[in-house]
Amino acid sequence: MRRPLTTLGLLSTIGLVSLAGVAALGAKLVRSSGGLSARKGADAVMRTWPLTLSPAPSDLALAQISLHGRVPIGEARRWLRVSVGGAFGSDYMAASVARLRGQGDTRALVVLINRPTPLLDPVSVHLRVQARRSLGTAKIDVIEDVFSRSGTTTRPALCDLSLHGPTLAAGELALVAARGTAPTGFAGASAVAQAYDFACGLPHASAFEQAARSSGGASPPQPVPPPVEPPKPPVGKLPGEGCVPTPGYACPG
User: Distance between CA 124 and CA 143 in Å, rounded?
Assistant: First the structure.
């Protein structure tokens, strides 16, 4: 009886081990599928809109994205995203969410500075705006060529933010995205705030326009002048035939 019992015990042990392996594999598959479902769920809660900006060289464009509901400023990057969807060149882009009191909706500002270079930069820059579905459909207002239109008296529709003071301060903005090399002295939220103040006819830093208009790349190479050859000494003429001695050279005898 010992041998059959031993065999039965071994078979039972093998069966338990196999069942444990299947259970572990099943748990692993469940965890994997759960991770994929979580990622798909995170993507499903975001809504996407295209945004194309085409400022002239050495100028900028400003866009305002209006959404329903409030975005927690500390989690602004998780609620709103702005990314480049194509060629970018040497331009500069920055996007921020406004920290405004007493305003029931969410306002985000996107600035794109066209910094010309000797290269073939794109005429338009295509951006992708993503926001939580709970914020509703986005309303986008755009001002192109802000510097060129500075003399106009028409007040743009996007100049309706409830500011704390006479200007939009960088501290009232939460940066959510930036791309490219910023103008000297004006990076991130500072560039967005200055662009808004300039576009809306509010007091702004006088150095902002000059910094934004500066080239975004290296200057084109300058042609190198050919080397200047020293004068050749007169050869084959006698003094009486027009040969004039010069320092370091003598007329042939």
Answer: 14
